[in-house]
From TrEMBL:
Domain BRO1: 29-415
Protein name: BRO1 domain-containing protein
InterPro entries xrefs: BRO1_dom, BRO1_sf, BROX
Species for this entry: Salvia splendens
Lineage: Eukaryota, Viridiplantae, Streptophyta, Embryophyta, Tracheophyta
Top-level taxon of the source organism: Eukaryota
Entry's family note: Belongs to the BROX family.
PROSITE patterns, A to Z: BRO1
Pfam family membership, one: BRO1
Amino acid sequence: MGCFLSTQKDTGGNRRRPANIGDVFVFVPGLRIPKHANFSEALGDHLSKSLVERLSALRTRIVVMAGQEAPTFTRTRRKTATQHGGSTLGDLLQALEDYLPVLLGLVKDGSPLQHKVEFVWINQEDEAEETAMCSAWYEVLSVLHLMATLSLSQANLLLLPRTSVDGYQPKLTEESRRSSVDVFLKAAGYLDCAIRHVLPQLPDELRRNLPVDLAEGVLRALCLQALGQGVDIQLGLAIDSTKATLAVKRRLACEMVKYWQQAQDNIMNLALANGWGEKHRLFVKWKYLEAKAAAYYYHGLILDEGNTEKSHGMAVAALQAADECLKESNKACEAFHASAPLSRNPPLWGTMKFLSEKIPKDTCSKVRINKDLYSHDKIMETAPTLPDFTLALKPDEYQLPEVDHSWNQQAQKSR
């Protein structure tokens, strides 16, 4: 059903572990890098020479580009990519999109060719340095994961504030923020496709031996955090809008909590042992606490609009919970950036710039006013339950492409 092999090397081998990955607004998993595959030896007796050479050329292009990208998948490269429009990431993403339709010919109609080629990828979040499998579906899964990783990196580029032409405070345009939401949905679409349409194609034995980078829980967590960060951007845009009501902001914040809570549930019990994996877990914890701070804040403001002692008491409890979550999120943020590979928090903007100023101020004010008006027993000791809203943001409907037409020519020659 497909051979597999996971290997560890004491020297660290080819795995890239940068010491510092610069400014991080979006968590980008460690880049999984493909190694050379021998299509000629495995498929030379089964396919035409031209098709074998095409498969080899398309994949070799990705191996070379990913290998060049990996050592510079850090702050320096991000600055370069920002100045030149992120062309390196875009070129690699295009190479993957060119490869996928040709690769899918190996699995068409359950073809036995899907088990002929050994595909090797270097892992980042798994203790095993690399995983080799004689499965074209494993290759498809790895390609989709890399496409999602590159999209998350593009989103990070879009959301890093750039120094303005006048040399003053770094700024982020509304266009960049709106564009990032589209990129988040694209990344989520790749991951959703991998979970729903590719993982089920792998036999149970191979699924059990996938590197943790490709474990279903990690893929789901990445998909959910892409959606959660998309909602975060939407909330920031709502905060800037004079037309957005408190109810709209609360709904967005509560939805964000659910995305991050589900992401945390999916990643919590996985064996993410090395630096990349632990950093991933810390990022989810940090953003979950931030989302709770926002949700409790807006819930508290709406409760405070009530005219009863009970509603005012609940409002104080909600605002106090928001303040506590904000403090905890700051600690989680520090822990995330201090974990290897080291990173930096970009200058505050958007949702958290607003809330980091408003939550402490409004909590202090509301607590003082309500404690003056009511006795202590009218103020709740625990935070009220947050409203439960249906999640609105969905991944893009990404579908695997049609098998490349070159396989039709191959079928005709085989008749």
